[in-house]
Amino acid sequence: MTIRRLLRYLQPHRKRLVLALVVLLLATGGDVAGPVLVKVFIDDYLTPGIFDPEPITLLAGTYLLLLFLSVGLLYYQEFLFHRIALRVIQQLRIDVFSKVQHLGLSFFDRTPGGGLISRITNDTEAVKELFVRVLSTFVQNIAMVVGILAAMFLLDAKWAFFCLMLIPLILGVMQMYRRFSYPVYRRVRHQLGRLNAHLSESIQGMNVIQVLRQQNRMRREFEHINGEHYEAHMKNTKLNGWLLRPAVDLISLVALMIVLSFFGVDGGESAVRIGVLYAFLNLLDRMFEPFNQMMQQLSFLQQSLVSAGRVFELLDEEETAPAQSGKENPRIREGRIVFDRVTFSYDGQTDVLKDISFTVEPGQTVALVGHTGSGKSSIVNLLMRFYPLQKGDITIDGYSLSAYSDEELRRRMGLVLQDPFLFTGNVKENIRLGRESISDDDIAEAARFVQAEPFIKKLPRGYDEPVGERGTTFSSGQRQLLSFARTIAFKPKILVLDEATAHVDTETEDKIQEALSRMRKGRTTIAIAHRLSTVRDADRILVLHRGEIVEQGTHQELLAREGLYQKMYRLQQGLTEEVESFGGVVQ
User: Fold this and answer.
1) C-alpha distances out from residue 508 to 445, 529, 530, Å
2) Between residues 307 and 258, which one has the greater pLDDT?
3) Mind telling me which CDD domains this protein's record contains (predicted)?
4) In sequence order, what E strands does 83-180 have?
């Protein structure tokens, strides 16, 4: 099944593949014809003592011509096979990467990032070996074996038939190797994925590792995983030592002894031409060499098949991101949001949202507050359609969330996360994000709107300043401002803010709050807030506790109720006063 799926990737390259096979057959024919020409020289000229210059020169010239032609054709067919293989792997990697881009967030919640990267890079690289080394080697050597057998039958049918009977024995050894090596190689690839996952986690959390002095623990864990990877490789090495070249060499030696014995018996009854004997032994030796090469490539074949299986498992993953359903194609014009008895669970067992219902009118700002784990982020995840809805319904402007296309939702809904993510490139590219409809003037206007332009102009290259991986060269506040700018540049109808001012200083926060107040005019806004002081001017505040809405109202109304919101507010106010008092003592 895996091989058939891999061969389907060859269909767009059928013409080149046929050309490569034709060239391979011609090269094989030229290579096999060499011993036959030597046989003619020995039996017809050398043994009788006939040294006619003209036919001998013609024979030698033909031999040399076939030799050079065979070398040239073998090079060209190998070039064609490599070109086809690289094209196939190029397309396979594009398919895998595109698939990953459309998988649901629930898949990434349970899949280690390092292991996923291992599949996309290491496993596809291993599959490349199937086409570059294994496929070309097998096709070339199978053609060589067929050509050698044909030449053998021309020389002596009885001996050739005996050699033909050896092939099932060699194929049996190859099948035995495949059977025992497959689980070993699967374990090797699994351990390699664990290594990559551990490395990825270590690199991303290096600051935490060093601060908490976890270097020794991380080294021990890495050493343990690396040891298991070593043990898996050693099992494979032992298997290769028994069932690869040694087994074929044993069969070839036994076959050579039997053929020489037959030669001795036949030689006692009738004269045997020396040229026939030379050509036959030469061909017999050449016949086992292709099998040796194929046996050596079996390890790469098994590794490629295991890796291909892991890649196809990823391609067959059905846990894709929720998509549009139905034939309607509505547009978000007002931004009225309704949650109607929504219940949701990440694992299918524990509900993180329980019968949630609320309405956000166009232009309103609704804040979500509550302790950690109360369900605030889950509401945002469902509204952004990151996860499939399980119970209840979410509508925007009267249409179910599932009726909207991804393009419409992403174009009309702007999301600003607490931890902003910047891409490698420059400042301008991180605001535009490939949206050609956004001009340089729009970028500058968005930056000014969110108070980001002052710090951008101070950069050595301004809007062309390079941005490294994840924007590590910028401060948290600067990254947040750029995240704001790219959201505003798209002019969304609905804003979703996940504690958007968490990583900026007080002065910058005041400027952003001022910008947000202008942004919210005419736009529906849902804001997750941990600092309650940032949502006092919200039209409505929803207080969540263990997945349920326990209170709702304005800031003043909730304080007057003396409920959970008031306790949270007083607690934060008390902590703020303590911090300010501590700061005053220090001064």
Assistant:
1) 18, 17, 18
2) 307
3) ABC_6TM_TmrA_like, ABCC_Glucan_exporter_like
4) none
The end-to-end CA distance of the chain, in Å, is: 73
Domain ranges of the chain: 2-315, 337-418+494-586
The pair of structure tokens assigned to 202 is 């270590």
Which tokens go with 518?
């202008």
Considering only CA atoms, which of 123, 136, 73 is closest in space to residue 93? Answer: 123
Token output for 114: 């390092």
Q: What is the mean pLDDT of residues 515-525?
A: 76
Dihedral Cα 462, 465, 469, 474, nearest 10 deg: -40
Amino acid 273: pLDDT:
58
Maximum mean pLDDT: which of 16-30, 256-270, 502-516: 16-30
Beta bridge partners of 393: 340
Query: What kind and span of H or E run contains 162?
Result: helix 157-204
| Spatial separation of the C-alpha atoms in residues 211 and 350, rounded to whole Å | 35
For 564, the token pair is 């959970």
**Could you tell me the CATH superfamily of domain 2-315?**
ABC transporter type 1, transmembrane domain (1.20.1560.10)
Q: Are 484 and 492 in contact (CB under 8 A)?
A: no
Residue matched to tokens 């028994």: 242
User: Which string of DSSP letters, residue by residue, matches 448-469?
Assistant: HHTT-HHHHHHSTTGGG-EE-G
CATH number of 337-418+494-586: 3.40.50.300
Sequence letter at residue 430:
N
Mean pLDDT value of segment 525-549: 87
Token digits of residue 411: 């174009």
| Alpha carbon distance 481, 504 (integer Å) | 8
